Every structure is written in C-alpha cells, then in structure tokens.
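Let's practice the habit of predicting before peeking. Look at the sequence and jot down your guess about where helices and strands might fall. Then scroll down.
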Amino acid sequence: NKNKIPKQPSALRSEELIFFSLFLLIASFQQSFSQVVSISDSARHLLAADKNNEAVTLLEQAVKQNKDSVTFHRLLGEAYNKSAQPEKAIVAYLEAADIEDCDSCHCDYDSVGTIFATLMNFSEAKETFEKANNRHSIYAKKELRNLYLNEGRDYLLEHDLGSAFSAYKHGLVYGEDTLLYDRILFCYELQKKDEAIRNLSMTLIDKYTDFTAPRFYLANVYAREAEKHIERGQFKNALEAIGNIILYYPNYCYAQFLSGR
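Done guessing? Here is the structure:
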C-alpha cells in the first residue's frame, strides 16, 4: 500500500536509557580517574627526584582543575613542605582533611601537626594532633605524649613544679609511657612525697619489670627511711630499710656504704 506510513523506530525503553546514562557516567569517571593517577604519579616522581618546584607548579594547576581531589591537595601539601613553604603546606593539607572528612582519615592532620611542631608552634601542634587523635591516629598519640613531655621539661626549667606535673599527667591520657612516669616520679622526689613514690613505683615495677626508674626512686625512699632510723638509734629498722634498697636497686652506692659492703 503506497499510502502506508513507514514504521517509526520505537523509543528506547527506560531501562536502556538508564544503562546508557550509567555507561557514560562510568566512562567519564574512568577518564577522570586516569587523569588523576597520571598527574599524581608524575608529581610523586618529581618529589622523589627533589624537583619540588616543578611538582608545586604541576599540582597547583591540577588543584585548580580538580578542587575536590584529596590526592592533589595532599600531594601539594607535601610539595610545599619540601620546598620550604610550610604555611602553604598547612593550608593544602587542611583542605585535604576537609574534603576527606571521616572518622579514620587522620594523615593530613598528622602532617599539619608535624609541621607546627617543627615550627615550634606547640599549641597549634597539640590542637592539630588532637584532631588526628579524634580520628584514631596512633602517630598523633605518640606525638602528643612527646609534646607534653617537652612541655613538662620546660616548666621544670622555670621551676614551675605544679605545671610540670600536670603536663606529665596529661601526657598519659594518650597512652602509657615510661618516660612520663619517670618524670612524674621525679616530681614526687623533688617534693619528697615518699608515699606517692612508693605506691606508683610498686605498680610500675609489677607492670614493667625492666624499668629502672621506679626502683631507683623507691631506693631513695628507703634511704631516707634508713637515715631517720639511724638518727633515732633504730639500727635494726635501718638495716631492714637498707636491705630494701639493695633489693630494689643493688647499685645504690649509699646502701653499700651503710651495710659495710
């Protein structure tokens, strides 16, 4: 029939349209991902070769074109830091941290905290490492302990014993540390808090069998006891105290002298 209207192609079904759209999306993503990998690999090669300025130039352009790329911001932070631009490095790392906002994404805060510590900006270092710690960073815990250990040392140099003790105690919030315990015992020793020394030392000796500091401070306590007993003529008690010195810290020369060895 000459008047018959030609059959029109049927429209694509909705399922086919969805599939086609997904195909285009995946293809676009793969192309974008390949570009990110290519640029990031080039940047890493430049950084490994200490061509830091070239890496900065490459990554600055990459960040302009891919503002939401964690990889580019992080690498740019590394490039800035290696090219002696710590302030710019901090900004780049923090931008990466803002983009990758999750409970376990801590590496950028770790990097920023390290830069602040290197710049001797310890208050900012502690604040930043605290953010990393909140994201479960083991590295941040270690660095926070070190920061409070150094803070306590500085307070001791200023003869501020109370603040030093508080700093050392605060450091233990981030995990057990024998150096912090050593300094706490030292603070007790300066104040001649013999009961506190005795209690903490016995706990530490049970927990850390090779930890020398609590044995030494405990020996100091028994040495003071021995002196008091000798002054009072209580020689049996003095010998018992001296025996405890030798038991806990055999190299304590005062005990050797008093015991006649």
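How did you do? Residues 14-48 form the longest helix (35 residues).
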